[in-house]
Amino acid sequence: MFEFEDHHSLEDKILKAGEGAAPLHGGHRLRVLAAAKQAQSRRAQRRALVTCGTLFLMFTLLFLTRDSGTVKQMAAKSDAGWSKTIYTKGSQVLGISSPASQQAPALTDWNSVQSTLKQSGEWGLVDAVVRFRNERAGTIEQIFNRGD
Amino acid sequence: MEKLSPAKFAAQIRCCANDLQDHGVDCLGSLYDLTAQRLLRYAVTVTRNSSDAEDAIQATMVRIAMRPKILATAQQPWAYLLRVARNEALRILQKRKPLQIFAQCRQLWSRDSEIVEENDQAQVVRRALKRLPANQSEVVVLKIWEDMTFAEIASVLDESPNTVASRYRYALQKLDNYLRPMTHEDINV
Fold it and tell me: Of A47, A71, B92, B137, which residue is most buried, by most CB within 10 angstroms?
């Protein structure tokens, strides 16, 4: 049976054997200090690189998102077939111009309307157009809305 | 190697770590002078060769130099340092695994030659320690050379204190067996 008490002398022997068990080489200290300094400078370089990269990224993002801050007109009322203007900022729609603000009156080329209707054979409409042209009763849209 | 009380030794390590934190890598020398020899003595039991152990100590010192705050605030700075050294030693061993078979052959060869060469008792004990499995010899080293308790050793090795104690017991049994013939020879002489 193993007893710890029996091993005091063995422990003493091991303790004595520990003195000078693993001598360090002369140049090891210098090597370690040089390696630590090198690691420190590498770390500083990496930090500087990360800082520069972050700044570059930030400025790039800032530059790219700068334009989207301005209000843009997605569809102007001057576009063909569209009477309103849509104002946007980025993907957000800020507003749509009301038709009431449309100042310029619609000018109808009565002769071209009349000739188009004649070609289509809609003689009732041709009569209505002629009547409205004579009376200056309104735009072509008003004629169609009335269903004449 | 000057033997300090564990508390005083820990306080000195903490002091060096604080210096390192305040003044940078230039103050690493004092920590090295204080601990390198003892760390190397322990690392050799893990790596089984002094050049790998020296590499492990270098990696340990660099790691500590980069983050001295952890060492300065550690509850047991010496145990922490030993643990870092152990991890670095194991990492080096992991990298050199393919070459391990050659190292083992060399070790077997040197074991044969040592029987003829050794005559110094301390050397005989050290060689007997080398013959132990690494997990047992490191417990012996930490217990006897580093004067640590089983609980402290358990924290370094990340094992339970009972496991550590039983490893110590087995290690002493084996060492007793290895060294007994030599003792009888001494008595006969």
Answer: B137
Whole-number mean pLDDT of chain B? 83
Q: What range does the domain containing B17 cover?
A: 1-96
Distance between A7 CA and the closest CA of chain B, angstroms:
7
Domain count, chain B: 2
The rounded distance, in Å, linking the Cα atoms of B179 and A10 is: 9
How many domains is chain A built from?
Answer: 3
Residue A22 included in any domain = no
Strand (E) or helix (H) holding A93: strand A92-96
ipTM value, please give it. Answer: 0.76
Q: Which residue has the higher pLDDT, B16 or A123?
A: B16
pTM of the model: 0.65
Put simply, the answer to whether A17 touches B50 (Cβ < 8 Å) is no
Residue A85 token pair: 């203007």
**How far, in Å, CA of B76 to CA of B88, rounded?**
18
What is the extent of the structural domain holding A127?
110-146
Cβ of B41 and A25 within 8 Å? no
pLDDT the model gives residue B59:
94
Q: Do A32 and B37 touch (CB under 8 A)?
A: no
Confidence of residue A1 (pLDDT cuts 50, 70, 90): very low
